[in-house]
Write a structure and sequence with these properties.
The protein is an alpha+beta fold. 33% of the residues lie in helices and 21% in strands. The chain contains 20 helices and 25 strands. The strands form six sheets. It has a six-stranded mixed sheet. The protein has a five-stranded antiparallel sheet with strand order 1-2-3-4-5. The chain has a five-stranded mixed sheet with strand order 23-24-22-21-25, covered by helices on one side. It is elongated, with a radius of gyration of 35 Å. GO terms for molecular function: translation initiation factor activity.
Length: 633
Amino acid sequence: MFRKPFRVKSSTITRKSIRRKLRADIIKQFASLTEDEVNQLIPSKEELTATIAITHSKEEVVIYSIAGEPLLFTYNNTLYPTVYAAWMLPHLLLAMITWPNVFDKMISGADLMLPGVTAVSHVEWVKHQACTIALSDCLVPVAVGLTAVSRQQAKDARMRGKGVYVLHTYRDYLWEFGTKCKAPTQCMINTYSLRGSTDTLQLENLAIANDLDLCEEQESIDQSGMNEREGSAALNITTTATDDSKQIGDPCKVDSNNDSTGREGATEESTQEAEGTATENSEVAINPTDTMDQLYQKCFMKAVISCLRNKTELPLLASSFNRIMQSYCEEGENLNIKKSSYKKFLTFLKVMKEWGIIDFKDTARGVQSITAIQRGHPEVKGFAANYPVEEVTEIPSESNDDALVWEKGPIIEELYMANKQTAFIFSNLDWKNKLFNVADVRAAITSYIKAHDLINPHQTRLVNLNDALGNCLLTKNDKGNALSWEEIMKRFTAKMSNCHQIILPNDDRPILRKGKVDLINVSIVRRSGNKKVTLIDNLESFGIPVDKFMHTLQNMAAASTCTYSVPGKKSTGTQVMVQGSQIKIVSRILIAIMNQTVPIEDVGLLAWYIRTDPSHFNQVIGSARCTRKLITV
């Protein structure tokens, strides 16, 4: 990553708030550090400089330096120590131990392969966990990287394949960005995360070898075989030939014969110790981001195998594939892309494409579809052989609202109360403190018109208004004294006092409220960075459980959701926010809820309860089925 020169975009001395945030991130990500060690890494009285750099591969990183020495850098929103910090705190990360000769390959741009790993500082590790790479002769960290496989995957692969993605090495351009001090001749890693002697290091490696049934093979390697292995391609290090490659020797400068003898002696002592004592496994603090990444990868592999077994027709919408992944979450698990290192589902798909498992393309603006799945990919074969995947009989489609299971939606009825202006219509009824629905009002108006013989004999759709109706309904802009039945109904109900009755889900007791129905407000706003978010208000007035609504919305939109208490609002409801423009998905969920009580033929009536952009809502329910005009913002 830093084997070629990088460009400095900006460099500033950080404020105290940035320093506090960095310290908090260090404590959160490196939980094993003590307060004194954090102070050693980020001294309070030293200037902290943040440098934004652009690498040769056009990736942006932030480098944090103390007194001109880079100690930390961020990549994909994750903190990594430099070799300077690794020398200061050797136990900061998981350590992978390799042969000294491998260092020349890594400085040339190669990643570390599993056959080159001779020992580790922890028995267990996870995939995409930050780690350092140290040399076996002096245990000095000379590189920082990211594990390519977990311990279990390495075991299943019999220690074959790629082990660590190398991000930064000793003597690369990030090292040259600092004081260029030489590597120490010895690092006592065994006094930190190994919790024991160097023999413990070899013993833990021997435990892995026993699991892999490789002990016999390892013990049979003699001196000549070891030298041949170190000098041959059996190291399985993939070397990238570049013009600016730097060929350097072992930083520790230890004779290889002594190193070989030391390895044999350490192995013999470790074997004796293993027969008499048991080693203590040090606990690894797992980053929550790594845990979410593993969950995404596991559900992705299960979804891929499910699609292959069910012969799913391709291309498949990425949103549909995401819902298949969601279905493979175990109880208590939930996929949240914002809590992973990918941050966006499209970024995750790009990584899977780089791995060669799937291929996808943009079928429309902002819409991706998976076009191919590689059945013969080693990762797919290995996962299918070790992890049973339950078959999915039906893949949810974009238009399948039945997948949204809601027990019952709210029953809403608009009611009216007569007042002094409208009481004459209900003169033959006990109208005081009585509620009328739309049908009751229409029946009362019809009865009054027929009783007073006000129907126009030439045009029956018109009504000739008498003095009482004229004083109540006519305005100064009206010409004549005739109105249609629909106009009379509309104007008369507008003159009456409004109220409404709601029967909430799982509660048969009607709730009577004054005024018109409070609308569910769905709006799109722009936040900092020109990012769009969708806000939903007033769900609780309709008895819609916010937690369940958020969970459904999060799964369908594949975006993070959260709630806010908005100050100054008259209603006591909670505002729901979801990343991106999600009006169509929100409308679909609300329709699925309301359809429990509103017939699908009358789905246009839902427009009275949702305030949003008409164009978005009409795309969902169809403009031909919208019988009443939407109320817009």
